[in-house]
C-alpha cells in the first residue's frame, strides 16, 4: 500500500517535477545565452525535439504497461531508409512503407511478449538487432544512402513550415494530444494503466491484458517508423547511422517525465516535458561551444538518475 | 437442508470432481446456493475451497459432474484485486465508464458517480486519489461496490476480513448485511467463527476435497463445526499413538525463550509464548490464527508494533541476524520457497547457515564442512548417494531433514518448526517426529507448529492455542486432549479464569 503522503508527493513529482526543472533551465538559458531565446533557435529546438517526441510517445504507452521497447532506435533508422527508398514510388509509398514494416515488427514484438510471456527486454533486444541487421543488409552495410528527390512532396513533409515552424512539430503535437486523449479518455488507455499497475488484478477485472500489450508495441513500432520517415524527409535521405541509442534517449525522457518505469502511472505531458528538457540542455551545451557536446549525455544521465532516485525514495 | 426453496438455486453443483497432477482437489462435491442466502464455505487449507470457488466461477472446468449457474457471479478475493495506482473512481468503473457524446470517457461524471456510490458504502475518501492510498478495508469495500455495480447476483467473498482492522470488519459485515437485504446472494469464506455465526445462514464444510456437511449454520454448534473441519470426532478424547513421538520430555524450569506481548496488527495481538530447555511447545489454531506469524515474530522476520523476545532472560533485537546469534533457528513452512536451494548439493545446503562459523577470513574450510555434513547425514539418517547429490533429487522427507540439519549445525538453543511434516510421506513423517523428540531430549527448546492435531497432542508437552491472532488458551498435562483444543479453537472457553488471566496479561503488556 502507498501512503497518502507518498502518493501526493509522487503526483507532485510526476506532474510538476520535470516541468519545474524545464522552466528553470529555460529561464536560466534565456538570461545567460542571448541567442537561446531567438525565434530561429526555438524553431530549431522544437523541430529537433519533435522526432524524439514521436518515438517517446509510443514508449510512454509501452512503459505504462510495465514493458520496455528497445527496438525503437533501430526501427527509427530502418523507417528512414525505407521511406527514402520508397520515395521513388511516390509520397504514399514513402510514408506507408516505413509505417507498415515498423508496425509489423512492433506487432511481432507484442505478440511474442503477450502470448509467450517472454521478457519485453529480450524480445525487443532481438528486434533491435534484427531491424539494424535488416537495415544494413538493404543498404550494402550502410554504403548505399537512398536520396529523396529535393522537389518531391515527401520532402515537403519534413521541410515544410508554417510561420517558420516545421511540419514535424505540428505532426508531433497532434499525435501527442491524440495520445493523451487515448491514454486518459478511452478504454484502451485505462487498460494500459491497469495492465501496468497490477497485471494479475487487471486480468481478474476483465481487462484484455494480452491485446493491450500487443497494441502498445504495435503503436510504438509504428511511431518509431513514422519518426524515421519524418527524419528522412527532413534530411532528404535515408541516413543509416542514426538511431543508435535512440531507444535509450526515449526511455530516459519518458522516465524523466515522471512515468514510472515499473508501469501503471505516467503522462504524455510529462514525456513532452522530458523531451523539452533533454533538447534544451543539448541546445545550451552546443551554445557554450567550448564544452564538449558529449557532456549533453552526461547531464541527461544525471537528470535521469535524479528522477529515478526521487521516484523511488518518494514512494516509500 | 431446509425446504423453503421458493426460487431454484442460483448455483448448483452436482458430483463435481477436479484433479490436479494426480491430486484430487474436489471429490464428488455437491453444493447448492439458494437465492438470497449468505452461505459460509469453510475448511482447512487444502480442503478444496479455492478450487470449488474457481469451478463455481468457471475459471476451472471440472473433470466430472455438473455445474448450473442462474446468475452473474463476482468474486472478491482476500488480496484486493484492483489497481492501486489508478484512481478509486477509475477502478470502480474500469471497463464500464460513462461516456461523453464523442465517445470519450466522461471523467467528471465518472468521479461524481463514484463518490455518490461509495458514500453508500461508508467511504468518503477522494475518489480521484489513487486506490492504493485508501486503507485495506476501504479498498475491499471498493472491490465489493464494483462487484455489486457490475450487476452481480452472487458475490463470493474469499477471506475478506483476514487483513482488516476490527473496526473495518464491522463496516464490512454491515455492508454484507445490506447487500443481503437487497437480495444479493453471498458465499462467505472465512475461518473466523464469530463472523460466520453473526452473518451466515447456511454452511458448507469441505475436507480433503469432499463436502462433509451442508446445512443451516445456527443448528450447528461451534465445536461441531471445528471438528468437522479438522476431521476429528468430538467424543474422541483419549490419546493414542498414531505418531512417532515418545513420552513427555523432562523440562528445565527456567524458560530459555520468552516472547511477551508480540503484536503485529492485524495478524497477531499480544501473543505470549515461553519455552523451557528440553520442552516442545505446540502452537495450535486454525489457518490464519497467527501461528506462522508468531514464529516469524520470534525470529525477527515480522515487523512488530509491540512485544519483546527474551532468550535466557536477555532481550533480543528484532532482526533475524540477532535472533540467530541468540540461538534461535526456524524451519519455514514452505520448503521450496523459503529454504531449499534445489540445484545445490546436500553438503552446500546443509552448511549454508553455518558458513560464517566455518570460514576464516572468508575462506571456507572444506574439511570442517565435510565433517559436519557427515555427522548430520548419519545422525538424521538422511538418505543420499553422496553429500554431493543435488537436493532437488531427494524425497520431500529427506529435503526436510537437510533443512533441519542446516539449522542444527548452527547449534541453536531454540528451534521453531513450522509444519515440519507437511507434504512428506508417512514413513519420513514418523522419522522427523522421532527426531524432534530426540532433539528436545537433548535439551533443545522446540516450538512446533502443525495443522495436525495428533502431531501436536503427541509431540508437544504444552500447547498454546491461538485464535484470531490472540492466545485463546494454554493447555498442558491432562488438558492435552482433542476436546480441550477444539473447544479453545471454537472459543467455547471452559477454563474461564485461566483465559481471563491470559487476556489480562496481554492487555497489560500492550499498554507498555
Automatic annotation (TrEMBL), chain A:
The chain crosses the membrane at residues 12-33, 45-68, 89-112, 118-139, 160-183, 214-236, 248-281, 293-310. It is found in: Cell membrane. The keyword Zinc-finger does not apply. This is ABC transporter permease. GO terms for cellular component: plasma membrane. PANTHER family: ABC TRANSPORTER PERMEASE PROTEIN YPHD-RELATED-RELATED, INNER MEMBRANE ABC TRANSPORTER PERMEASE PROTEIN YJFF. It is a multi-pass membrane protein. One of its GO terms (molecular function) is transmembrane transporter activity. It comes from the Bacteria. It holds the Pfam family BPD_transp_2. Keywords: Cell membrane, Membrane, Transmembrane, Transmembrane helix. The keyword Transmembrane applies.
UniProtKB/TrEMBL annotation, chain B:
GO terms for molecular function: ATP binding; ATP hydrolysis activity. Keywords: ATP-binding, Nucleotide-binding, Repeat, Transport. Residues 11-233, 251-493 form the ABC transporter domain. It comes from Lentzea alba. The lineage of its organism: Bacteria, Bacillati, Actinomycetota, Actinomycetes, Pseudonocardiales. This is Sugar ABC transporter ATP-binding protein. It holds the Pfam family ABC_tran. PROSITE patterns: ABC_TRANSPORTER_1, ABC_TRANSPORTER_2. It comes from the Bacteria. InterPro entries: AAA+_ATPase, ABC_carbohydrate_import_ATPase, ABC_transporter-like_ATP-bd, ABC_transporter-like_CS, P-loop_NTPase.
